[in-house]
Design goal:
Residues 7-75 form the HTH gntR-type domain. There is one protein chain. The protein is mainly alpha-helical. 63% of the residues lie in helices and 6% in strands. It has five helices and two strands, in the order αααββαα. It has a two-stranded antiparallel ribbon. The longest helix is centred in the last third of the chain and has 28 residues, at 76-103. The radius of gyration is 17 Å and the shape is elongated. The mean pLDDT is 94.
Length: 124
């Protein structure tokens, strides 16, 4: 995983976990990698992963079974979707709208490229 400097590492790891959930690679009640396993996999400090798991737990995306590990919450998909939608609406959409406006683009200009993207993405 490549980290960027524009966002805290623990939030980038949270994005990674949410993406696995949104892609339905990790489903409700699935056990997520242990703190140590994910830290080794992503080459980060275990404290960073623990901070991520705390944040995900507070967001209702995962839960902890003491002594067993962390699991995707029964409503984890919906919680991850809500968190990512809110983040998109607050952070990405204003930049997107600004670029549309500055480039003089219309919604119709986006239809074909978006359809192509969806087709390519769904074929992966």
């Amino acid at each position: 995983m490549q980290f960027n400097s524009s966002q805290s590492i623990y939030l980038q790891i949270a994005d990674f976990v949410c993406e696995r959930i949104l892609l339905k690679e990790w489903k409700a009640e699935d056990k997520v990698p242990s703190v140590r396993e994910l830290a080794v996999q992503l080459e980060v400090n275990p404290n960073t992963v623990m901070r991520t798991y705390d944040w995900l737990q507070q967001s209702g995306i995962i839960y902890n079974q003491r002594g067993i590990g962390f699991f995707i919450a029964p409503g984890g998909l919906q919680s991850a979707l809500a968190v990512k939608k809110k983040e998109f609406m607050e952070n990405d959409l204003p930049v997107f709208f600004r670029n549309l406006y500055l480039l003089g683009m219309k919604w119709e200009d986006l239809k074909e490229p978006f359809q192509q993207f969806k087709q390519q993405f769904s074929s992966k």
